[in-house]
Design a protein that fits this description.
InterPro entries: GH, Glyco_hydro_20_cat, HEXDC-like. The chain is an alpha/beta fold. The chain is built from 29 helices and ten strands. The chain has a domain of about 100 residues. The structure holds 2-acetamido-2-deoxy-beta-D-glucopyranose (NAG) (5 copies).
């Protein structure tokens, strides 16, 4: 695939340096494992402190390498405070605005110089899910269940499977290049007894999601779209060049492309394009690559809510429904429609031959708020629903009549609207809704009432699942289990309602940011294994260990992908071979280091001796702080090494702006936080005598 792109194997170091990294890595992994283990405990007493320090010291010295793992766990568990659960909740806590790598390094070297003198001064379930909590399970009956064993029921042709060559398949060497056409013709299903240990996770998943009943053939939607959310972080065209063939191979039939500020808007609209937007030639490149790989493009343009990238500018303040926020456009201003038409015209012009256009329109948080709209509603005795519908009719009609395209739109705003309102506006003849839901259990999440309602209005319906960017606003590694469950659930829903609707296709969404202003969540390369597994789940009507095995081979994993997210297993020596596999690898590495950093920050040594109270009064335990700080250097070194390697990997996929953003949010912010702790601790450590209690009431911080 990408010859000449030599895998770093995550380690460019040699000899002792390499060993040091290994030691540190192992310590990190052990720490994390124990963190999770101890999260269930409820109390650590102060008498543990001595042991804590001893354990910390021995760990840092690398003693644990010679110990059996069990012993180390026993030791280390003392180091961890209970209630340190939720590594996630602390992640991305970038409160200390980091200022890019250089700044940090300057400070670091300052610190090193200081040292000579020995004394120093001192981030919803998913947004989508959240916005949707009104839907409770009312009717879970009548859903057919899709058996995991449907693969055989499906027949070989459909799933592209044959029943021969199990052995050969299992022993198949890792694919070293991406040119593995027909990998999905690789055979099948090992007898149950031979199912390897790792496969049990997948089987459990399948079993928990799919209740055995007489087998129903799953409904497999004709279109399978990969959603490319490009908001403020454009992957290189050379990356797409490597990925589009892979998407095709995995069974994708199209791309739902959401350029947002990455489209080269021109003329009056040129402000809408970010400074690092694609050029018209880039768009041509994308269009050609898609065509070469038989991927139908459906552009997505927000035309109602989520127009932050447009309305954030001063010149568009008057277009806002609520002048305080650029979230939604006012549908009643005469110039609003002109702006939207301009955007549609430009994007459509650069995508010759398209059949569909997605007009977005989800999460319109501001509706009927501005004086113009209020007045209009009052005059015509109209509701906000009327206001919403009128705007949709205008935009969708424009797309249909002026451009002869079929408009698709997100469905969420429809979920509370009565079918009479739809009928009044003849919405069913105008647009095809795309019902999105990223929850792992959709019978719980989208109640049957919604489907009954839609069935009265729409014949053709799309659905949208998610393969990333839906489980945490600052999530940077993907929870594959979550997304697989979501896809299995969608298969169930579509199978249940296949006679009520013509399901046109499924868009596998991969959110890059929750909105224009938000941080980056999982990057495309990081979520490629999730995408591949989710796509194959749709294509095959289910998931089983063989599919995981085949996908793992195709993506060049040395061992089968573990669908369970957890920082507690060793990081593989080398990155998987798929394009961007090194980015995936670096994110996994950081996930482990972050768990270590979290553990460090929550050491009893700091929780007990490095509080604002103590800092204000310069009153703390030198030995406790010194013991805690022993982990500082190895942790910081490991994070810096990870940052360097991540930078190099990210450069293969993204531009410098994106690389810098990710590094600052994900790594430099952590380093800054650790650095601040170190400075504070050092300043407390410098003291040699302490005052009599009681201490001052509340002296100012130095
Ligand atoms: C998969 O990963 C999880 C979380 O790290 C771990 O608990 C589990 O043992 C792993 N499964 C296998 C089979 O390696
Ligand atoms: C999904 O939710 C429904 C309703 O709460 C429940 O009956 C069903 O067992 C759940 N399915 C799974 C796989 O958890
Ligand atoms: C306004 O519309 C509501 C229904 O939407 C209706 O019940 C009411 O009678 C109408 N009022 C007037 C003044 O037309
Ligand atoms: C991953 O998702 C599954 C299914 O939603 C959930 O049960 C599990 O807790 C998640 N794991 C992590 C580490 O967030
Ligand atoms: C604490 O006292 C030491 C020694 O006098 C001094 O160097 C340091 O700056 C002080 N730290 C704080 C936080 O006041």
């Amino acid at each position: 695939m990408n010859p000449g792109r030599n895998r770093k194997s995550g380690m460019r170091l040699r000899g002792p340096a390499r060993m040091a990294v290994l030691v540190v890595g192992t310590v990190a992994i052990l720490f994390v494992g124990v963190k999770i283990f101890t999260a269930t405990k409820s109390k650590v007493t102060s008498s543990d402190d001595g042991q804590m320090m001893a354990a910390a010291q021995s760990l840092i010295k690398g003693d644990q390498i010679r110990n059996p793992r069990g012993d180390v766990q026993k030791e280390v568990q003392l180091i961890y405070r209970p209630g340190g659960e939720a590594v996630e909740s602390d992640k991305g806590n970038a409160g200390h605005a980091g200022n890019m790598i250089r700044k940090y390094e300057e400070e670091e070297s300052d610190l090193r110089e200081d040292k000579a003198g020995s004394l120093h001064k001192a981030h919803p379930e998913s947004k989508k899910a959240d916005s949707d909590q009104g839907y409770e399970a009312e009717d879970n009956k009548g859903l057919p269940d899709i058996k995991m064993s449907r693969l055989s029921a499906l027949g070989d042709k459909k799933a592209g499977l044959s029943q021969q060559g199990d052995e050969a398949f299992q022993q198949q060497p890792i694919q070293q290049n991406m040119d593995v056409a027909g990998v999905f013709n690789e055979p099948a299903i090992p007898p149950v007894a031979q199912v390897p240990e790792w496969a049990l996770d997948v089987q459990r998943l399948a079993a928990s999601t799919i209740i055995a009943k007489p087998p129903t053939l799953p409904f497999i939607p004709p279109a399978k779209l990969v959603h490319l959310d490009l908001k403020g972080a454009p992957p290189k065209i050379s990356y797409f060049k490597q990925m589009f063939p892979l998407y095709h191979k995995l069974g994708a039939t199209g791309l739902l492309i959401e350029y947002e500020d990455m489209f080269p808007y021109a003329g009056e609209l040129q402000d809408l394009a970010a400074g690092n937007a694609y050029t018209p030639d880039d768009i041509k490149g994308i269009v050609n690559l898609a065509r070469e790989n038989q991927l139908e493009i459906i552009p997505l343009i927000q035309t109602f809510g989520h127009m932050e990238f447009v309305l954030k500018y001063e010149k568009y303040i008057a277009y806002r429904e609520n002048p305080k926020t650029p979230q939604a456009i006012c549908p009643r201003m005469p110039f609003s429609m002109k702006l939207i038409q301009g955007m549609l015209d430009q994007v459509i012009a650069m995508h010759p031959g398209i059949r569909y256009l997605h007009i977005g329109s989800d999460e319109v948080y501001h509706l009927g708020e501005c004086p113009t709209c209020k007045q209009y509603m009052a005059k015509g005795n109209l509701t906000k629903e009327d206001l919403f519908m009128e705007h949709i009719v205008k935009v969708a009609s424009y797309v249909r009549t002026e451009h002869r395209l079929t408009p698709i739109m997100w469905d969420d705003m429809y979920r509370h609207i009565q079918s009479e309102v739809f009928l009044k506006y003849k919405i069913g003849d105008l647009v095809e809704p795309m019902v999105w839901a990223y929850h792992p259990n959709l019978t719980q999440f989208l109640h049957a009432g919604i489907w009954d309602q839609y069935a009265k209005v729409f014949k053709k319906v799309w659905v949208a699942s998610s393969f990333k960017g839906a489980t945490g606003i600052d999530q940077y590694v993907t929870n594959i289990t979550h997304h697989l469950e979501n896809h299995l659930s969608w298969l169930q829903i579509m199978t249940a309602y296949k006679s009520a609707f013509s399901f046109q296709g499924i868009a596998l969404t991969g959110w890059q940011r929750y909105d224009h202003f938000a941080v980056l969540c999982e990057l495309l390369p990081v979520a490629t294994p999730s995408l591949a597994l989710c796509l194959q789940t749709v294509v095959n009507g289910g998931i089983d260990p063989n599919i995981v095995n085949r996908v793992s081979n195709l993506l060049g994993f040395a061992t089968p992908i573990n669908i369970t997210l957890g920082p507690d297993r060793p990081l593989p020596e080398s990155a998987p071979h798929f394009p961007g596999g090194d980015v995936y690898h670096e994110a996994q590495r950081l996930y482990r280091l972050d768990a270590w950093a979290h553990g460090f920050e929550h050491l009893g040594n700091f929780l007990g001796f490095l509080t604002p109270y103590q800092l204000r009064r310069n009153f703390s335990s030198v030995s406790s702080l010194e013991a805690g700080l022993r982990q500082y250097a190895p942790l910081v070194d490991a994070l810096k090494a990870a940052r360097d390697d991540a930078a190099e990997a990210l450069w293969g996929v993204y531009d410098g702006h994106t690389v810098a953003e990710w590094l600052e949010q994900r790594i430099t912010a952590t380093l800054d936080r650790l650095h601040a702790m170190k400075r504070s601790a050092d300043s407390l450590i410098a003291r040699r005598t302490w005052p009599r209690r009681p201490l001052d009431a509340r002296p100012p911080l130095q």
